[in-house]
């Protein structure tokens, strides 16, 4: 891989990591804000949309954590793949057919985890947006509900 391609890949990965961690932080902040807005409010049906927003943000946070874990597993698997190719892996098999099998196994794990990371990242984003929409809808209904009646 050329230096330019490697640098581009590194920048892309760093950008993706920042995005994941941004959504994690934003989800946590939204949960805290929603909790603060509901302090002292007795439980009732009109809090259902707020509960839905908090649940969505909580799931977004969960999927963001899962995505970060999968990315770490991908980095380890890529490191293993490179060391197997170089013949320097700590458990390097000596027979060529075993090396080929190990390479296929690691590549299979990488492909599976790439799909999972993409899926978790997608869920993280969509649940974050759904939580935001639920929260805004709840606030609109609260304004209407608490508006003075003529």
Tertiary shape: elongated
Radius of gyration: 23 Å
Helices and strands: which structural class? mainly alpha
- Number of DSSP strands? 0
Number of domain units:
1
Number of helices: 3
User: Gap between N and C termini, in Å?
Assistant: 72 Å
Q: What is the mean predicted local confidence, pLDDT?
A: 90
How would a textbook summarize the main sheet?
Answer: none
Give the % helix.
over 70%
Which series of helices and strands comes N to C? HHH
Approximate strand percentage: under 5%
Which stretches are poorly predicted, pLDDT < 50 over at least 5 residues? none
Report on the structure:
By secondary structure, this protein is mainly α. The protein has one domain. 83% of the residues lie in helices and 0% in strands. It contains three helices and no strands. The protein has helices at 3-37, 48-86, 96-146. Helix 1 (3-37) packs antiparallel against helix 2, helix 1 (3-37) packs parallel to helix 3 and helix 2 runs antiparallel to helix 3. It is elongated and about 85 Å long. The chain starts with a helix and ends with a helix. The mean pLDDT is 90.
